[in-house]
Specification:
By secondary structure, the protein is an alpha/beta fold. Helix content is 39%, strand content 17%.
Length: 383
């Protein structure tokens, strides 16, 4: 049963006639809410993003839809900005409530989602090797593993409670005569199940329904296939996690990006320019407040990353010998709280974001990357 009191929710906010901003709870104190958007139609409703795959989020979304005259069974379409749990998490549950619900995502995001969720059992081994490659010692990794008991970054902080709940459900099912290998309800609705998108979108494609016309806008960076959406008739832009009103999304270089020669930060900065150029009167992000001046917010975010590039160069200069690892550089740049307090999963994100900046500097000819025989990587200013 959900623990969340739906009566404490702010009521849905109508942006323009028939378009509502909803609110569902997250599992993070830093970002307590995810805001799905609901397009009202004559025979149902279309959502842009869904919410976390938790009972609390289910209860909140049900209550918020009821407040505008709908039920989960009325959801005809779910457009997903990207495949992170707070955006995709309720997709499976919505399919259960409304079997005809069409899930639409950019084809590039679906491809990335499938690739990144293959072989999860090997994730920890790959994670440890990648972290050591970029300057985290085996002792630090073991200490972090002892503190967190490991796990991929897409699992929530309640993963231990979720495992306990799954075990209890399975034990109860077996007691009632189910096969021991039968999936529990928790497992079936787990956000990282293989969600098959019904519609694979391409950049610039128009999605038309119930008198609405939504243009898909491919904005890689936070994820490879992140989707923003634009309503030209209303001068509205849905920005997902690509542009938020106060914080900046994590833009990290992963081991897969290294292998593919992809630089997410360069893609992200180009995508910022892309949405900044849209004729937008109001931007609708997935978290925090609405954005009244999207071009200005994009400029501020671009300036933040330019400042981070200079911080990375200064950090290299501050290390004796001038050839630090990405982990040493990450320790020396500015975060929203001290790097020393980060869990190992947060350190991985910080190192990944630092690497995205370092790789951009390398591509621009301002840094050299040195790879030792043991595979470890260090960075040096060009002379």
């Amino acid at each position: 049963m959900p623990d969340f009191d739906v009566t404490t929710l702010e009521p849905p906010r109508e942006i323009v006639p028939g378009l509502w901003r909803l609110r569902t709870p997250m599992t993070s104190d830093a970002l307590p809410w995810i805001m799905p958007y609901a397009f009202a139609g004559k025979h149902g409703v279309t959502l842009f993003d869904s919410g976390y795959g938790t009972p609390d989020a289910e209860a909140a979304l049900t209550a918020q839809l009821k407040a505008i005259g709908y039920a989960p069974s009325d959801v005809q379409r779910l457009i997903v900005s990207h495949a992170h749990p707070d955006h995709l998490g309720l997709a499976h549950w919505l399919k259960q409530q409304s079997p005809g619900c069409e899930v639409a995502m950019l084809g590039r995001e679906v491809e990335w989602f499938k690739d990144s969720h293959r072989g999860d059992e090997d994730w920890m081994a790959r994670h440890r090797a990648w972290m050591q490659r970029h300057g985290v010692t085996a002792e630090e990794l073991e200490r972090g593993r002892s503190e967190e008991r490991g796990g991929p970054p897409w699992e929530s902080k309640q993963r231990e409670e979720a495992r306990t709940a799954r075990a209890a459900e399975k034990a109860a099912a077996v007691a009632e005569g189910a096969h021991p290998d039968a999936a529990t309800e928790t497992e079936r609705r787990s956000w990282h199940m293989q969600i098959e998108a019904d519609r694979l979108l391409v950049d610039g494609e128009a999605i038309e329904f119930d008198g609405w016309r939504v243009l898909s806008v491919w904005t890689p960076g936070h994820t490879p296939g992140h989707l923003c959406a634009y309503l030209p008739e209303h001068r509205l832009t849905f920005t997902g996690d690509h542009v938020l009103s106060r914080i900046t999304p994590n833009v990290s270089l992963s081991e897969e990006d290294e292998a593919a020669g992809r630089n997410p930060l360069r893609e992200f900065l180009a995508s910022l320019k892309k949405v900044s150029d849209l004729d937008t009167g109001l931007a609708l992000p997935a978290h925090e407040e609405l954005i009244e001046d999207l071009p200005e917010r994009c400029r501020v975010i671009a300036d933040h990353h330019e400042h981070r590039l200079h911080e990375a160069l200064d950090a290299i200069d501050s290390v004796e010998g001038g050839r630090p690892s990405a982990a040493q550089i990450a320790e020396r740049v500015t975060w929203n709280r001290p790097y020393a307090t980060f869990s190992m999963m947060k350190r991985r994100s910080a190192i990944g974001e630092t690497l995205a900046h370092l790789d951009l500097l390398r591509e621009d000819g301002r840094l050299l990357m040195h790879e030792a025989e043991d595979g470890t990587v260090r960075w040096e200013r060009t002379r």
